[in-house]
Amino acid sequence: MKAAKARGLDGIAITDHNTIAGHAEARRFSKGGFLVIPGIEITSKDCHIVGLGIKKLVPKHMSAEKTVKLIKKQGGVAIAAHPFAPGRKPGLVHKAKFDAIEGLNSRALFLSNPLAQRYAKLNKIPMVAGSDAHRCDEIGLAYTRVNCPPKIECVLKQIEGGETSISGRTLPLPSFLWRAIQRLAQR
């Protein structure tokens, strides 16, 4: 949250992989005009799915369709995360009725983002952008703009209604490659 504020962001979505353990601590920072949206990035059987505005853990390894239903049951927004990134299954966007597609992901390189944006435009699906930050220096590389007060319900409604714009850039290729090498070395 401190890094997001330092980069001039008005809020951040916390979407750790398959856990909501950080939500309680993150809520402490959601004050004074800075919004923290509770979320999760779920590893479904079919793909990665971002759930925003959730309060309860959504289990991993379920079908995309069931995962999306559980997110929506909580009043959350279901987003197809980096659907065209290399190594992902591009057909995932057909597996469930997503509220939005991640059209710009700062960690998705090459044709991933243009393909996601093209698909979203052709199918009239709202887009969001995200840093997919795994480190503080990556926060704010890509972001979603909304035009509403800093309230979770308002932001989620804008996403669902397609009243967002996406901005930012991808992680520089040398940084991306260095982080990939570090991940391989840790295994």
Report on the architecture of this protein:
This protein is of the alpha/beta class and 187 residues long. It has one domain: TIM Barrel, CATH 3.20.20.140. The chain is built from 6 helices and 8 strands, in the order αβαββαββαββαβα. Strands 1-2-3-4-5-6 form a 6-stranded mixed sheet. It has a two-stranded antiparallel sheet with strand order 7-8.
For this entry, give a set of tags:
six-stranded mixed beta sheet, 187 residues, single chain, 6 helices, alpha/beta, TIM Barrel
Low-confidence stretches: none
By DSSP, the count of extended strands is 8
Radius of gyration: 15 Å
Number of structural units classed as domains: 1
Which class of secondary structure composition applies to the elements?
alpha/beta
Strand content is 15-25%
Helix-strand string: HEHEEHEEHEEHEH
Taking strands numbered 1, 2, ... along the chain, how are they ordered across the largest sheet? 1-2-3-4-5-6
Which outline best applies?
globular
Q: Report mean pLDDT, rounded to a whole number.
A: 91
Question: Mind describing the biggest β-sheet?
Answer: 6 strands, mixed
Q: Please count the helical segments.
A: 6
What is the CATH architecture descriptor?
Answer: Alpha-Beta Barrel
CATH topology: TIM Barrel
| CATH homologous superfamily grouping | Metal-dependent hydrolases
Layout of strands and helices, then pairs:
Elements (H helix, E strand, L loop, with lengths): L1 H5 L4 E4 L8 H5 L7 E9 L4 E5 L11 H10 L3 E4 L19 E6 L6 H11 L4 E4 L11 E4 L6 H9 L4 E4 L4 H14 L1
Parallel strand pairs: 1-2, 4-5, 5-6
Antiparallel strand pairs: 2-3, 3-4, 7-8
